[in-house]
Specification:
The chain has 270 residues and is an alpha/beta fold. The chain contains 13 helices and 10 strands. The protein folds into 2 domains: 162 residues, Periplasmic binding protein-like II (D-Maltodextrin-Binding Protein, domain 2, 3-Layer(aba) Sandwich), CATH 3.40.190; 92 residues, 3-Layer(aba) Sandwich (D-Maltodextrin-Binding Protein, domain 2).
Amino acid sequence: MKTQKFNFLSFLFVLTLGLTLVVNGCVGRDNNELKTLKIGINDWPGYNIALYGEEAGLFAKRGLDVDFIPFDNLQDASRAVLSGSLDATFSTMWDAMQVDSRKDKPALVMVTDISAGSDGIVAQKQIQSIKDLRGKKVAAKLGTVNHLILLEALQLEQIPPQEVEIVDLDNDIAQEELKKGKIDGAVLWEPSLSSTAEAIEGNILFTTKDVDSLVIDCLMTRSSFVVSNKDKLTQFMLAWFDIMDAVENQPKKVFAVVANQLGQSQEFFA
């Protein structure tokens, strides 16, 4: 059954890719005609993997010159997209839904990954379970995907959110407050989740592998940009498929390239 399902999904992928190529014409472009895309990105492996496409020339192959703009807060990146300062951004569906629509509306054009263990809650070593968080201070930036992760964890254990003191902090500050012992736990994502747990000799109480998580990452743009730049967005998505193919077939090479750009070891990024 697994083989049949894989073959069917492979057929659908090839069919979809083929139709896209027919609609959008020839894939290869002259390097002198590269079209620029400004894409928001933050420090998350599921997004950072796109840096391989830049190094390996996969975007140029698709006729694109992609400029990745770093953001600490994905909602800020979403606002930049809607204001026209960015063409698109990597985001979570949750963060994209929270942003004010203003004159234009967010448009989610591609799912990049679904969290299955890389987001979670780390706590001080004396706290052994989610149930032990009752009455404790847990950092999660309100309204962001971290808030969603905390709610998923509490729902799993049937704990009302009001029984936990949610501290409205960004990731970087939450890590420092946790190390100083000023809070009891924090919602973080990898690689910070594991490194922080190690630094405080604490416990990872919950990750998104424990639930059918709604932490879904995507490529977000604005509806007007989709209408006028369908070709550029399509080529970017095709380049993303190229990157995913490289991850499947030569992961060590891909991880080494991205890790080098991030100043990390290959093993750490993998």
